[in-house]
TrEMBL record:
Xref: SMART domains: CH
Gene Ontology CC terms, in alphabetical order: cell cortex
GO molecular function terms listed in the Swiss-Prot or TrEMBL record: actin filament binding; calmodulin binding; GTPase activator activity
Organism listed in the record: Strix occidentalis caurina
Name assigned to this protein: Calponin-homology (CH) domain-containing protein
Calponin-homology (CH) domain residues: 56-171
Coiled coil (UniProt feature): 180-207
InterPro entries, A to Z: CH_dom (IPR001715), CH_dom_sf (IPR036872)
Name of a matching Pfam family: CH
Any one GO BP annotation for this protein: mitotic actomyosin contractile ring assembly actin filament organization
Length: 661
């Protein structure tokens, strides 16, 4: 009994397609007869084909190839078929080889959040159509394209699998993607499945095609004499086996081989690349039929490996220019068509050199040795530089518009220009439009060139926005919001004390009322800083006065007038007209006042307040003046020199008058 065999079928759908005779044999006139169409429909309807090709999707080559292209992990094989239905993976794949046709921003539900939450949506079909458009853009024959419903409704998933494998080989030929492993020998059908399908096809005189024919199909898609192409390709394979680079190069140059972009200087690289590819293909061949391409490289595979060698050679030129820090040589290397670098800008050449040199050094640190940057890494560096350049150009345009708006003096225009994201400025609050306009216009007039640059605008707007938040918190009566704004690094105030939070709010609120009464709608940064300084000074003086009052009260409980006088003379006490000769009187008057207060409050620990101490000092001074008038001779007239200061206290005869007790 025959064991499991390997095969698949192709999805031709276009009558008269040039690939038809290559798929189904050389007989006939190349037209798509009704009987053949029926055979096609029947073959794809057979359960065995469905099962076998679905198993192809779970094999490593297809998922691994897609993961290599996308640089991301795909769902496990058991879930991959279902995951393809929303088209996100396919659209991302289209972006890899046709980014202009499928920009990432056009992909619907790119992170698949909606799909995971609610399942398929009709807009997911857009993703599938983007993938089809990308394949058309690069020229993959329509014969391989599945219909949208084949994927979205799972009507023909085997056709999708076949298309992915055909696409991979086609992109490899164009140098747009890595190579995929051949499926021949890896898609197993049971004997019954093969026999059922074979019987249906034999009714129409047709034969089963195989997966390994995909390479042949694409090779035969080339124009020209097919026999000549076949002979030239076999000659190349023979030259590769001989191992002489010059002979291989001569075979490659045969016009009948229809190979593109051959480079004489890379003959050795071509020989080595093709030798390895041929060995790998031969080692993978098992239980093959009589098809010569089971072990020989096809035209598409040869072209693909030539492209790989060309890319590697171009990357070596790039690496050499980076090693020598030679900007002109780097630009020439980057312009090599095989690298397919879009949007190279000579103005950014120095930046390209800097960026790619940094990327090269970083890669060497990660690997532990110096290695070539891959094509994708070079492209990523170029795109990063271009993006930064575009952002800087947009920023300069936005800054120019801001300066023009400030010159015009229209508040709404100024705020709108400041809020342009391209300007890369901090948050702007429209409620403070007059503040921005006034302060920025002032800075603009003071600037030597009359124009503010982005860095100056950034610092100014950051500070003005912080000032706006302070004013907003005051208007809203929000102490917590005010505190958050006062300690913001953007505001940049000095000397802000946590303990004074409530006092800041009260003092600034009072200052704002005064400013508004004077016609100023907003407190300025200077107003806020001055208020904070004043509040800090006031609180500091008050705290010092409290300490001085405590020391005075402590001195009053001791029988030492000199200690009382020393406490009264403390600068923090801020008591006027304290005189040295009156120390005894100060102590007596204040001690008596403290005793009376303790009796009145029934609190032995009662202390005098600053106002009460001030009142006692005044009364003691008055008593001293009265005593001086009565004791001193009227003829000396010294009584007219009162009130005394601590520096005085002597009559004209030099006698000390302490007053009466």
């Amino acid at each position: 009994m025959k064991g499991p065999q390997t095969c698949s079928c192709t999805p031709p759908s276009t009558p008269g397609c040039r690939l038809w005779p290559l798929l189904w044999g050389k007989k006939g006139n190349g037209k798509f007869p009704p009987t053949a169409r029926r055979a096609w429909e029947v073959s794809w309807a057979l359960p065995g084909v469905w099962g076998g090709l679905r198993r192809a999707l779970s094999l490593p080559p297809a998922p691994s190839w897609m993961e290599a292209c996308l640089s991301e992990e795909l769902p496990p094989p058991t879930e991959l078929e279902e995951s393809l239905r929303n088209g996100v993976i396919l659209a991302k794949l289209g972006h890899c080889f046709a980014p202009t046709v499928v920009p990432l921003k056009k992909i619907y539900d790119r992170e698949q959040m909606r799909y995971k939450a609610a399942g398929l949506h009709f807009r997911h079909t857009d993703n599938i159509n983007y993938w089809r458009d990308a394949m058309s853009h690069v020229g993959l024959p329509l014969i391989f394209h599945p219909e949208t419903t084949d994927i979205y409704d799972k009507k023909n998933m085997p056709r999708v699998v076949y298309c992915i494998h055909a696409l991979s080989l086609y992109l490899f030929k164009l140098g747009l993607a890595p190579q995929i492993q051949d499926l021949y020998g890896k898609v197993d059908f049971t004997e019954e499945e093969i026999d059922n399908m074979q019987r249906e096809l034999e009714k129409y005189g047709l034969q089963l095609p195989t997966f390994s024919k995909i390479g042949g199909i694409l090779a035969n898609e080339l124009s020209g004499d097919e026999a000549a192409v076949h002979a030239a390709v076999l000659a190349i394979n023979e030259a590769v086996d001989r191992g002489v680079a010059a002979q291989t190069m001569a075979a490659l140059r045969n016009p009948s081989a229809m190979l593109l972009d051959l480079r004489e200087g890379l003959a050795g690289a071509y020989q080595e690349m093709l030798r390895r590819a041929k060995l790998e293909k031969g080692s993978n061949a098992r239980n093959r039929g009589e098809d010569i391409y089971d072990r020989c490289l096809t035209q598409a595979e040869i072209q693909g490996n030539i492209n790989k060698a060309n890319v590697h050679g171009a990357l070596e030129e790039v690496d050499d220019a980076l090693e020598r820090q030679d900007a002109p040589a780097l630009f020439r290397a980057l312009q090599d068509p095989v690298l397919a670098l879009r949007c190279l800008r000579r103005d950014n050449l120095d930046r390209y050199l800097e960026q790619l040199s940094t990327d090269r050094e970083q890669k060497a640190l990660e690997l532990g040795y110096v290695d070539l940057l891959e094509q994708e890494e070079v492209e990523a560096g170029i795109l990063a530089v271009n993006k930064k350049d575009e952002e800087e150009r947009a920023m300069l345009r936005a800054v120019s518009q801001i300066n023009a708006a400030i010159h015009r003096g229209v508040l709404a225009e100024t705020v709108e220009a400041l809020m342009d994201p391209a300007a890369r400025l901090p948050d702007v609050y429209p409620l403070a439009a007059p503040l921005y306009q006034h302060q920025l216009a002032l800075l603009q007039r003071q600037h030597p060139r009359g124009e503010l640059v982005q860095e100056e605008l950034f610092v100014a707007v950051e500070m003005l926005s912080a000032v706006a938040l302070v004013n907003r918190a005051l208007d809203a009566g929000d102490p917590d919001g005010l505190w958050s704004s006062l300690v913001s690094p953007a505001l940049g105030l000095s000397g802000v004390e946590d303990a004074n939070t409530q006092r800041y709010f009260e003092d600034l609120l009072q200052l704002k009322r005064q400013s508004r009464g004077a016609g100023a709608e907003f407190l300025s940064w200077n107003d806020i800083q001055d208020s904070v300084n004043t509040t800090n000074s006031s609180v500091q003086n008050e705290n010092a006065r409290v300490l001085a009052v405590r020391l005075i009260n402590e001195a009053l409980v001791q029988p030492d007038p000199e200690k009382t006088l020393a406490a009264l003379l403390l600068p923090a006490a801020a008591l006027p007209d304290v005189a040295l000769p009156t120390a005894w009187r100060y102590h007596d008057v204040l001690a008596r006042a403290r005793s009376l207060k303790a009796q009145a409050t029934e609190d032995d620990g009662a202390e005098l307040w600053w106002e009460e101490i001030q009142e006692g000092v005044c009364r003691a001074n008055q008593d001293t003046v009265a005593a001086r008038r009565s004791e001193c001779s009227p003829r000396c007239g010294c009584w007219v020199l009162v009130p005394l200061t601590w520096e005085g206290g002597f009559c004209c005869r030099g006698e000390v008058r302490r007053g009466s007790t």
